[in-house]
Amino acid sequence: MSASRTVHICVVGDEGVGKTSLITAAATETFPDHPPPVLPPAKLPADTTPEGVPVVITDTSSRPEDKQALELACQEASVIVLCFSADRPGTLRRVSSYWMPELRRLGVHVPVMLVGCKSDVRQPNSDRGLHEAVLPIVKAYPQIETCMECSAKKLQFVGEVFYYALKAVVHPMAPLYEPESQTLRPLCAKALKRIFLLCDKDKDGVLNDAELNAFQVLCFNAPLQTEELVGVKQVVAERIEQGIVNNGLSLPGFLFLHALFIERGRLETTWAVLRRFGYDNSLQLSDEVLSRVNFDHAPDQVVELTAAGRAFFRDVFERCDVDDDGVLSVREQEELFSTAPADPWASLEYEGLLAETSRKGLLSLNGFLAKWAATTAADPRRTLAYAYYLGLPDDAAADKLFAVSRPRRQERRADAPRRGLLQCYLFVPANMDATPVMEGLIAQSRPAHGSLAGPIRAAAAAVGGGDGAPTLILRSFSEEQAQVLLEGAAGAEELQRCDVAAFLFDAKQPASFQAACEHLERVATASGDQLPCLLLQANDSEASPALAERIGEACSELAIKPPTCFGLRPAAAVYQAIVQTAQQPELAIPETPSLKAARRHRQMLRRGVLYAGAGTTLALAGYFGWKLWKEHRMDAESGGSGSGSSRGGSVAGSKTGAVVVGQHDRSVLTLP
After folding, report:
1. Ranges for the Miro domain (predicted)?
2. Alpha helices, DSSP H, located in 112-157
3. Full 3-state SS string of 503-557
4. Could you read off the pLDDT of 210-266 as tens digits, one per residue?
5. Which superfamily is assigned to 183-284 in CATH?
6. Does domain 420-591 match CATH 3.40.50.620?
7. pLDDT (tens digit, 9 = 90+) per residue, 447-505?
């Protein structure tokens, strides 16, 4: 956890169980004979706590009039210290009958410390009975991490109560270990496996002495002494089969060591390792790690994998394709993601994403790369996280795996580089199925592919051959989905992410063409008349002459190309046309009524500017003409009234020469 985060310890329990006395004894090392009903919150600075974090301890009252304050304190708590009285069995029974259900009702899901106060007055020889009473409660509520007894009167274990409460927050057990089965939890085992593989520099499956020492220095800033190294190996060899292989620590041995640390209460050791490799308390990579790469971009830009990024994921695939058959079997895919929290495409937003697979539905290399391209466009932080999970070293230059495209306006210049990932929104009228178009994108390179269990919402594949071939992501929108998109507050921004819009219609259903045209006009207008569009015509051989005439008229009016046609299933040329339209958008912007109106408005503005400019020019010319005429008249009047003037002009002598002034042309000559 962050060192600056304050840990809030909330002490709760029935009235009279000893909550206030416990806090007072821990803080002052004295037992209060007459404690107050409730203490004010006690604040401990970070430099006074063993874990170096600030702590606030909140006492609570069980009186009905204080219920609201109690609930608020519980909801703000980082950990709950739930007290019962060791000499009052009824207070222990209320732990399961009232307190734990109440915490659940309040939505409190933090660690709970179960503390038996007043152990000094407990009946002798009652240890067994107390243990038998507590054990079912602990099993029923996994939130309870620790159970212990204390005596405020005798100052026994009062400090330990708050020490373990603090540890339960800073070094929680729940994410790491299952006490009942005495095993590491799956997320913990996955994280430790990733760490093991990163530290296995020679990739021989074991950590040799040099690798173990490097790991020790990295995590704890100190190497292992020779006798310590021998002792660790001896313990592992005695306790677990195949824990030591070729005098090196194997993965099972590495996992066993951490389970042993946890069993012995040394959770801080395992947490130090996990945090050194970037994990937070939920055993996901922390925001600090994922903020190393800046993914900020405008809606009309896209984050895509660079050549280095594609090479990284290609290497991951080939490393896990053990049988070298070009696809990932179920076991190989499980092994590939065995160092990650989960399959990245198991979540709802990726369930409908179709990519290239084998006949048996096994993911191919092309499909694997296409899925990562689609994931990067939708959620680049997820791709970054999985790059780390799948073996990207912690000190690698992760930003080299990604690139942010230029804004679309800059890309449309003739000499500008183009993005390698294109997104096409496919709008489908009622009574038509987009599945053939989606599957066709995959089938352009390999006819055989698996099918998804649910509906296909999107498809991703490279179009064309070679490493530089663009990846096309095709997303389908039904009429209802299109309505939501166009009427939603974020509709215009969402359309900026789209590189090209395609509108499907069936030549056998003339009404579908009308629907496609209406969709095209609405989508183009909503995009600000900036989105290139094309029509896709299915069953082209079934088009009637009347429909063909309507199609020609509509395309002429909209100033777009004729529809791209196909029969039952689209061929590769359909997807090449989509890519070409995205890459040459200026030829596919529809002449919608809104665009024509905007153009007329701009023309009127230009005419107004021209007229205004001409008027201004004439006004300025008139003004300067009048000014020159006025100056001429004034000079003429002053010349006629001067001494020695004559009709033909005058000559004034001087030592240096004479100036001759022409009365009519106002020219000035200097005579030597």
Report:
1. 4-171
2. 127-140
3. EEEECCCHHHHHHHHHHHHHHHHHCCCCCCEEEEEECHHHCCHHHHHHHHHHHHH
4. 999 999 999 999 998 999 999 999 999 999 999 999 999 999 999 999 999 999 989
5. EF-hand (1.10.238.10)
6. no
7. 445 556 678 899 999 998 777 899 999 999 999 999 999 988 888 899 999 999 999 99
Please indicate whether the domains covering 183-284 and 420-591 agree at the CATH topology level.
Answer: no
Chain CA centroid to CA 569, Å? 36
Which CATH topology does 296-408 take? Recoverin; domain 1 (1.10.238)
User: Using CA atoms, how far apart are residues 471 and 423, in angstroms rounded to an integer?
Assistant: 9
Residues forming a β-bridge with 224: none
Which positions ≥6 away from 185 have C-beta within 8 Å?
A: 175, 176, 177, 178
Task: Decide if 104 contacts 97 (C-beta within 8 A).
Answer: no
Amino acid identity for residue 67 in this structure: K
Least confident of 89-103, 111-125, 257-271, 313-327: 111-125
User: CA 443 to CA 428: how far, in whole Å?
Assistant: 20
> 339: burial class by Cβ within 10 Å (0-12, 13-18, 19+)?
buried
Averaged pLDDT for residues 426-446: 86
Q: List alpha helices for 321-468, DSSP H.
A: 330-336, 365-378, 380-389, 408-411, 435-443
- Break the chain into its structural domains and give their ranges: 7-170, 183-284, 296-408, 420-591
Residue type, 268: E
